[in-house]
Amino acid sequence: MSKADVIEECKLVYFTGQKITTNLLTLTMIVLNMNNEWQERAREEVLQVSGNNKPDYDDLNGLKIVNMIQLEVMRLYPSTSLIRCTKKETKLGDMSLPAKVQLFVPLHLVHRDKEQ
């Protein structure tokens, strides 16, 4: 790869990370707006950990409820789906899949399956 290609790849990773973080924070605010009880729990925890000061980097480890909320948002609204390709003939449950078949797994549906 040329130096310019490496720079472009770094930019792509940086901006993708920003987009994913922005989406996570936006969805977290939406979910908290839909559930006032958890919104209040998160607010109380932030006030308990940092008082009336702005939370700093060291305070983040003490925000257990906020972390649980963000993990749940990521579970319910994953940023991607899985795409896998079989290398050889594969048995999946009662099905037999030939080699080189692409499987698309919509994680947002898997994470909402009440039977699992």
From TrEMBL:
InterPro entries: Cyt_P450, Cyt_P450_sf, Cytochrome_P450_Monooxygen
Gene Ontology molecular function, alphabetical: heme binding; iron ion binding; monooxygenase activity; oxidoreductase activity, acting on paired donors, with incorporation or reduction of molecular oxygen
Cofactor requirements of the protein: heme
Topology of this chain in the membrane: Single-pass membrane protein
Location in or out of the cell: Membrane
GO cellular component entries: membrane
Superkingdom per UniProt: Eukaryota
Chief location bin: membrane
Keywords: Heme, Iron, Membrane, Metal-binding, Monooxygenase, Oxidoreductase, Transmembrane, Transmembrane helix
Pfam families on file: p450
Family the entry assigns: Belongs to the cytochrome P450 family.
Protein name, as recorded: Cytochrome P450
